[in-house]
UniProtKB/TrEMBL annotation:
Alphabetic keyword roster: Hydrolase, Magnesium, Metal-binding
UniProt pathway: Glycan biosynthesis; trehalose biosynthesis
EC numbers on record: 3.1.3.12
Membrane-spanning intervals of the chain: none
Catalyses which reaction(s): alpha,alpha-trehalose 6-phosphate + H2O = alpha,alpha-trehalose + phosphate
UniProt-recorded name of the protein: Trehalose 6-phosphate phosphatase
CDD domains xref list: HAD_TPP
Record family assignment: Belongs to the trehalose phosphatase family.
Protein source organism: Trinickia soli
Gene Ontology terms for molecular function: metal ion binding; trehalose-phosphatase activity
Top-rank lineage group of the source organism: Bacteria
Function in brief: Removes the phosphate from trehalose 6-phosphate to produce free trehalose.
GO process terms (BP): trehalose biosynthetic process
Name of a matching Pfam family: Trehalose_PPase
Length: 250
C-alpha cells in the first residue's frame, strides 16, 4: 500500500468521493447519517481551488446527496451512475420507471413485512434491501434478491454491500461513472483521486488505477485500492489537511 500524499496540486487533480462510509459515518438507516460542517467546508473549498473538479460518486440518489451537502450544482453520480449530473448542471438518467423494478419492489416489500428491522430503500432506478438492523435476515435477503435478479438478468444485477443487497441496472457502476466524468471538463486531463469504503467502489478504484491515479480504501476489507486509511475520521482529517496545504500554495 502507498502512503497518502501530504499535498495534491488542485490544478492537476480531479477529486471523486463516495459518500456513506467515506465522507460520513455509516448509520443504522440511510436518513440517519450526520454530515459534519467540516466536510461540507472541505468540499466547497476544494471545489473552488480545483475550479470545479470535485464530484461525489454514490449509491444514493442525487437528491439525497444534495439534501445532505447543500452544495448547488455539485457534480454527482447517483445510484452508482444510473443518474449523473455533470459540471454544467445537466443530468442524465437511465433505468427509471421500469415496470420490472416495480414488480421487484412489491416482492421485497413482502419480505420486509416478514423480517422486522429490514428496510427497503426505493431509489427510482434501483432498490436496496438493508438488513443492518436485522442481521439474522441476511440469508433471506440474499436469496430473495438473487432470485429476482435471476428473473431479470438481461437488465439488472445484484450489488452486495455493507449489510445491504442492492438491485441496480446492468452496465451501470461507479467505474463507468468516473470514466464519464474524466472525459469532460473540468475533470479531463487531470489525475484522478477516488476514495470509497465498499464493494461498490472497487470498479471506481480499477478505473483510477488504470489512469495512474490515487485510489483510497476507507476502512478494512480486501481491495484493489493502492492506499488505505483506517476510518472515516482519518480520511476526513486528511482531506482537510490537503485543502489547507492547497490554500497555502495558491
Amino acid at each position: 500500500m502507498q502512503s497518502l500524499p501530504g499535498f495534491l496540486s488542485p490544478s492537476e487533480t480531479a477529486f471523486f468521493f463516495d459518500f456513506d462510509g467515506t465522507l460520513v459515518e455509516l448509520a443504522p438507516t440511510p436518513d440517519g447519517v450526520v454530515v459534519p460542517a467540516t466536510v461540507v467546508d472541505s468540499l466547497a473549498q476544494l471545489r473552488r481551488l480545483t475550479q470545479g473538479a470535485v464530484a461525489v460518486v454514490s449509491g444514493r440518489g442525487i437528491d439525497s446527496i444534495d439534501a445532505f451537502l447543500g452544495l448547488p450544482d455539485l457534480p454527482i453520480a447517483g445510484l452508482h451512475g444510473a443518474e449523473r449530473r455533470d459540471a454544467s448542471g445537466d443530468t442524465i438518467r437511465v433505468g427509471f420507471n421500469d415496470e420490472r423494478l416495480l414488480r421487484m419492489e412489491r416482492v421485497l416489500a413482502e419480505l420486509v413485512k416478514a423480517h422486522p428491522g429490514t428496510l427497503l430503500e426505493i431509489k427510482g432506478a434501483a432498490i436496496a434491501l438493508h438488513y443492518r438492523n436485522a442481521p439474522l435476515a441476511e440469508t433471506a435477503a440474499r436469496a430473495a434478491t438473487e432470485r429476482l435478479v435471476d428473473q431479470y438478468a438481461d437488465a439488472y444485477v445484484l450489488q452486495p454491500g455493507k449489510m445491504v443487497y442492492e438491485i441496480k441496472p446492468k452496465n451501470v457502476d461507479k467505474g463507468r461513472a468516473l470514466a464519464a466524468f474524466l472525459d469532460e471538463p473540468p475533470f479531463a486531463g487531470r489525475t484522478p483521486v477516488f476514495a470509497g469504503d465498499d464493494l461498490t467502489d472497487e470498479k471506481g478504484f480499477a478505473v483510477v488505477n488504470e489512469r495512474g491515479g490515487l485510489s483510497i480504501k476507507v476502512g478494512a476489507g480486501d481491495t484493489s485500492a493502492r492506499t488505505r486509511v483506517d476510518s472515516v475520521a482519518s480520511f476526513v482529517g486528511w482531506l482537510s489537511d490537503i485543502v489547507t496545504q492547497a490554500q497555502r500554495n495558491s
